[in-house]
Amino acid sequence: MRLAGKSGVVTGTSRGLGREILRAAAAEGARVVALARSATTGAAAVEEVRAAGGDAVFLDVRRH
User: Fold this and answer.
1) pLDDT one-digit tens code per residue, 4-48
2) Which residue from 19, 48, 59, 63 has the least number of CB within 10 angstroms?
3) Could you write out the DSSP letters of every residue in 10-61?
4) How many degrees, rounded to 5, is the angle at CA 16 between CA 13 and CA 17?
5) Strand partners, 39
6) Are 40 and 64 in contact (CB under 8 A)?
């Protein structure tokens, strides 16, 4: 796990490249804050990461 002990922020995690970066960073051991404009798909991406054993939280950028 190359990113164990590291933290990061990934934008656009509801789909596409942002979602893939979220998955990859978490799979490498990073604790990730996932940002997206879509609460439904952004939260779903974080749930996928958690189900796979990763560590991530979601923030809806439209609300903050």
Assistant:
1) 999 999 999 999 999 999 999 999 999 999 999 999 999 999 999
2) 63
3) EE-TTSHHHHHHHHHHHHTT-EEEEEES-HHHHHHHHHHHHHTT-EEEEEET
4) 80
5) none
6) no
